[in-house]
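Exercise 7. Given the components listed, write out the predicted structure of the assembled complex. Treat all entries as one system.
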Amino acid sequence: MTKRLGRSTVAFGNPPCIRANACVAGKKEGEGPLGNSFDIVNNDTSFGEKSWEKAESRMQELVLAKALSKAALSPPDVDMIFAGDLLNQCIGSAFALKDAEIPYFGLYGACSTMAEGLILASAAVDGGFANRAAAMTSSHFCSAERQYRMPLEYGSQRTPTAQWTVTGAGCAIVTAEDLGGAYVTHACVGQIVDAGVKDAANMGAAMAPAAYRTITDILDQSGSAPEDFDLIVTGDLGFFGGELLREMFELDGVELLNHTDCGEMIFDRESQDVHAGGSGCGCSASVFCGEILNSMRAGRLARVLFAGTGALMSPVSTNQGSSIPCIAHAVIVSSTR
Amino acid sequence: MTKRLGRSTVAFGNPPCIRANACVAGKKEGEGPLGNSFDIVNNDTSFGEKSWEKAESRMQELVLAKALSKAALSPPDVDMIFAGDLLNQCIGSAFALKDAEIPYFGLYGACSTMAEGLILASAAVDGGFANRAAAMTSSHFCSAERQYRMPLEYGSQRTPTAQWTVTGAGCAIVTAEDLGGAYVTHACVGQIVDAGVKDAANMGAAMAPAAYRTITDILDQSGSAPEDFDLIVTGDLGFFGGELLREMFELDGVELLNHTDCGEMIFDRESQDVHAGGSGCGCSASVFCGEILNSMRAGRLARVLFAGTGALMSPVSTNQGSSIPCIAHAVIVSSTR
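Answer.
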């Protein structure tokens, strides 16, 4: 049974084990600082498909197959999967799973989807709802650009605060069995925070207050301090949002020395021309389900606070002049149970 | 703790109680056969807002407030809410909840969202993840028409198999406390079924095989027969899809005499010119969280199987020639624990 610690934070009674993690990425991500952490890199970013939307679904098919293979499981061994993506009506996930025959919960959490899915998969396992549950998400630069901004062919200019949607996918399989490696010990379910930011080309600024709220909540309610973690990692605030988050904590007199952001990690700021860094569901998914969890398995990180952040707007709400409601969901992952 | 009965069906250890239910609808729905079952009907369907998208969010605000008031609860009493809708990036839910300060999981299950949310809220309560959890969704005819089909001003013709998106919203609050009325005893998490239907104007045909699969699964795995229920209600197959589902069971030698569909119930087929009946997340939500649960509370129904069905396509996938992946999630609701 899961134990509630406060308004939004829970401690899992038997912290579910992350049995396997896998990640897939596109060419540009493969050329970045985390290039070696991806299980699969596709060098023309089409993943062999005829549309970018189909390429995104294909990434999810690949990452699920890879996670299953690393876990030595087949689809019937997974009781349920929590998945979603940025595409309208979440077709990235639906088409990836259409032949999988795995009970499926569709999520929409924008770039917080990996954290949202991981919380629900962990709660499902801890509550007896599932023995094994998966969390999966993706984003694709080319499908996102044409849906949210402009067709690639238009060659539009980007503002300095604009983030670069990561072409990538991640999948984690959570189980009740104790197999070592990494355990989800706590979770914090985000509340929407709307700081009034209306600039859809500055998601980092919009999302930082949500990240601040959720990280503060989980620290307070779990009785933890920032220094209890080897790493506090958000995803995806990018360079500007990451800086803003650290400044918000500084105003409280807290120096977040062990904080970084998946959007800061995945690209090289100097050489890769990505302006404010990476974003998209696939950014935190591919970094968390690659570099972070791999580092935990290798013993380089023992306790990590992972907060996925999402901007819950749409082009329609932006065009109607609305501000950007944001959310952050967080989990504490530990190498010991 | 929740007990797994098979591949996709669970029995809740302490069946969560549906403490309150509320529903809101537009003018056309208010004029239909279920007009008296809606808590709030807005007679110009704008709900006082300046855009249809904002009207949809307003419906969710209203239905949440109404459900809370019926439950004698305030927002801080609800530990988490599961909500989603049909709008791109689920802005109907996000904007409705932006000031609610309730921990929020965004869902995308198309018209299955009410059932999906109810399953997750029930599993959360049964597993100790939440003491009280809400499930909420909406759809709006005018926001859906312009997003999925044509702007209303275009006045496009509809095919006979096209369904009419319901303007409506529903909310149910599920709690661990035993307060009588209705309990969620079992749930079946749907798997995607893609029968190859490509006609986006015939969702009933696309979704009927998913409903058939999930209803068959929950009956088999919970050891139930159709006649164990006072009502088997799907949402939203409409007139054609509902008929197809009954025909699929007939081929198995099973006469589903106690079946109806929320899309068949909500409009009058003769007088309301809705072609194949109602659809949209708000259809099954407003019918289940109104007529159905009200009938259970009044003692007219004792045991109900509710299966929410969703078509997980988008205009982009349809334009790319893809078939329509569908899903159905089901719950068994009983007036006794």
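Discussion: The longest strand of chain B covers residues 17-25. Chain B touches chain A through 65 residues (CB under 8 Å).
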